[in-house]
Design goal:
Elements (H helix, E strand, L loop, with lengths): L1 H29 L2 H27 L14 H30 L7 E3 L2 E3 L1 H31 L4 H7 L3 H29 L4 H30 L5 H13 L3 E13 L2 E10 L5 H18 L3 E8 L2 H9 L1
Parallel strand pairs: 4-5
Antiparallel strand pairs: 1-2, 3-4
Length: about 325
């Protein structure tokens, strides 16, 4: 999963870098606020890809004395920072620039390039069309990888279930970028056709609102991962079933799980065992169960088994 996510991130970063340069050139030549807002959006997106790569690298560090469960949650922190940057660096900036353009509308100017005068409208349309193609390519790469991972679930359900924020963050960014580009195209064209420069500003506001909405969605999703989410219900059910199947296990009191990273699940299992088992038999059962849980779910990396009578566990849980 990490390898596939990395491929999607590199594709997005390359596309965004090329798009940002083209948008800034177009915005400088024609004075389009929507183009400049889109340029800033692409710069922010490029920085976000770098942050995700840094987060993935830092998350791979081995556990140490200070962080005995490793650094897997680093990727969740960096994904949250990415969402915050989209909100502040992309969305709010685009809204601010758009409001300023609406308050002080100015028509786009023709571009002067190598002594040739080019209509500002067509310069912006050409650059935005290039951006749509580049961004669409990046979106296709991310979508193909996401589709392979989501299985039978719907896209929204798959995102809610996913414990790897890198791929769905790139996918959300690319989707927001494509919507923003279409808004920018509409704003640039309508402001010229209707001779209302303020429409260019409203397009920038629309782009900003799309980015803010996407950023809020990503912050909500990564926030849950950052503070600790349980494993999928299917994984929890499988853990309970394996424990119940062990001879000597009378009752499964509780299965507590938590993702310490996209592929790093901590399991705390409370079971009630037969009183006539010897210490050696208990040790063998615990060892066998630990091995079975990790074989059943490769993402399970740490298993802690608590031997406790069913009644006592209920008393403690209530307390």
């Amino acid at each position: 999963m990490a390898h596939e996510s990395t491929g999607a991130i590199y594709a997005a970063a390359g596309a965004n870098l090329a798009i940002a340069a083209a948008k800034f050139v177009g915005g400088a030549l024609t004075g389009s606020t929507a183009m400049l807002a889109e340029g800033v959006h692409s710069v922010v997106d490029t920085a976000n890809q770098v942050l995700l790569l840094v987060g993935m690298k830092r998350a791979e560090r081995p556990a140490d004395a200070r962080h005995p469960f490793g650094y897997g949650r680093e990727i969740y922190f960096y994904a949250f920072v990415v969402a915050l940057m989209i909100f502040l660096g992309g969305g709010l900036f685009a809204i601010y620039e758009g409001v300023e353009r609406v308050r002080h509308p100015e028509p786009d100017v023709d571009a002067e390039l190598f002594g040739y005068r080019l209509p500002g409208l067509w310069v912006n349309v050409a650059i935005l069309s290039f951006a749509v193609v580049a961004e669409g390519t990046s979106f296709f790469v991310a979508m193909r990888q996401f589709w392979a991972e989501k299985g039978k679930h719907s896209a929204v359900r798959a995102i809610r279930r996913s414990k790897d924020p890198t791929l769905f963050t790139v996918l959300a960014e690319d989707a927001a970028a494509l919507i923003g580009l279409l808004i920018a195209l509409a704003g640039v064209a309508l402001s010229h056709i209707l001779e209302k420069p303020s429409l260019d500003g409203w397009a920038s506001v629309g782009i900003g609102l799309v980015l803010v909405g996407m950023a809020v969605f990503l912050m909500v999703e990564t926030h849950g991962l950052l503070i600790g989410e349980a494993a999928d219900p299917e994984v929890i059910a499988a853990i309970a079933d394996l424990a119940r199947a062990e001879p000597g296990v009378l009752h499964v009191n509780e299965v507590l799980t938590q993702h310490l990273g996209p592929s790093d699940i901590l399991v705390n299992l409370s079971i009630d065992m037969a009183d006539d088992l010897s210490a050696g038999e208990v040790e063998s059962l615990v060892t066998r169960l630990d091995k079975a849980l990790k074989q059943r779910s490769p993402d399970v990396t740490r298993v802690f088994i608590e031997i406790q009578q069913q009644g006592d566990h209920g008393v403690r849980a209530a307390a």
